[in-house]
């Protein structure tokens, strides 16, 4: 690694280097008081800056060993001092906010603005206020509790996006159980696999779907559109019900697609979902004047993102028609007609929507796929575009960044959200 020793290095290593068939070859030449490193790389595989970083990391590792030869291997590092400072600055994200569960945040808005619209159902033309949503979710919470819903146990929900889904989501959080959303369009073999694995105490659904439940599954069913169920719920207390939950208690479950085998669950905590709610409010400056589009299917974690974005910040959730969810141009028309201010969509969806159809200045959160630079350029020029990234396991979103009209190159995934740390490995 020292220029003065290049001749000696080549004398010792030229045979190994010049006849190597590997993309990268490292020769280490020891002398009395040092080690000299020669790294040769194939330029079609690695550029010079990469080779420099490899040598810097090897040198740092050797320094760590020499500094304390008795330390365990697990404590050795390869990052240079500059990289350690960069990592510390990027991951300095602790917010130290006191923990407040999502259903507690919702309750604040139900008390302050009880008559404000919580959910607008475009399909039926109905509007549910924060007071109504609070009362109906509390009644359902009491009912689920009587049926055995408890902390660390799943309560499944098979409902389309809309008021009933929001009621079920809040009711399950209020009783302290874990919300397990499934899709009404899922094939029976997938539903059977998930319900068998999760063993929910109850399934909240409709009478139409209850008749299609897998015959092999024995579970209590609550049909929200059944007149007898509605009559029973109306007799239950509608006063606010808010179970005290631990930050690391299970809040909801999301199952994988199962394309590589059986669907597998990811369990997310109240701390994670509460952190998302607080981050959304600050980063998107959300308040009761905003209107959030609910277009993700329930079994995807983006649906939880949308529910929390509206109901934990006092905004209004706009549930489009079933036809709009399968026809992007219709979705854009309904979003404009109902003055949607925030929409979370996949980049693929952005490519089939006319950018001029949406209200000027709408906040578009692109997520779920890589955002192509041409698509980003078109949408950033007309709207407030945010690129969001994160695996389900980190509670929906881990990083995000604003994409501006003058941004160039592939869109970045941004920096970590509050209380999130990120590493390139």
Provide a concise account of the structure shown.
Helix content is 38%, strand content 19%. The chain has 425 residues and is of the alpha/beta class.
Topology (elements, then pairings):
Layout (H helix, E strand, L loop, with lengths): L5 H13 L5 E7 L4 E7 L6 H20 L13 H10 L11 H11 L4 E5 L4 E4 H17 L7 E5 L4 H13 L2 E5 L5 H11 L3 E4 L1 H4 L9 E4 L3 H8 L15 E6 L9 E5 H14 L7 E3 L7 H11 L4 E4 L2 H5 L1 H10 L4 E4 L1 H4 L12 E4 L6 H10 L1 E6 L9 E5 L11 E2 L9
Parallel strand pairs: 3-12, 5-6, 5-7, 7-8, 11-12, 13-14, 14-15
Antiparallel strand pairs: 1-2, 3-4, 9-10, 15-16, 16-17
Task: Describe the protein's architecture and organization.
The protein has helices spanning 6-18, 48-67, 81-90, 102-112, 130-146, 163-175, 188-198, 207-210, 227-234, 270-283, 301-311, 322-326, 328-337, 347-350, 373-382; strands at 24-30, 35-41, 117-121, 126-129, 154-158, 178-182, 202-205, 220-223, 250-255, 265-269, 291-293, 316-319, 342-345, 363-366, 384-389, 399-403, 415-416. The chain is of the alpha/beta class. Helix 5 (130-146) crosses helix 6. It is globular, with a radius of gyration of 27 Å.
Average pLDDT over all residues: 91
Helical percentage: 25-40%
The assigned structural class equals alpha/beta
The total count of strands amounts to: 17
Judging from the principal axes of the Cα atoms, what is the shape?
A: globular
> Distance between termini?
25 Å
Largest sheet: 5 strands, mixed
Low confidence ranges: 1-5
Radius of gyration: 27 Å
Lateral strand order in the biggest sheet: 13-14-15-16-17
Oligomer: single chain
Please indicate the percent range of residues in DSSP E strands (runs of 2 or more): 15-25%
Number of helices: 15
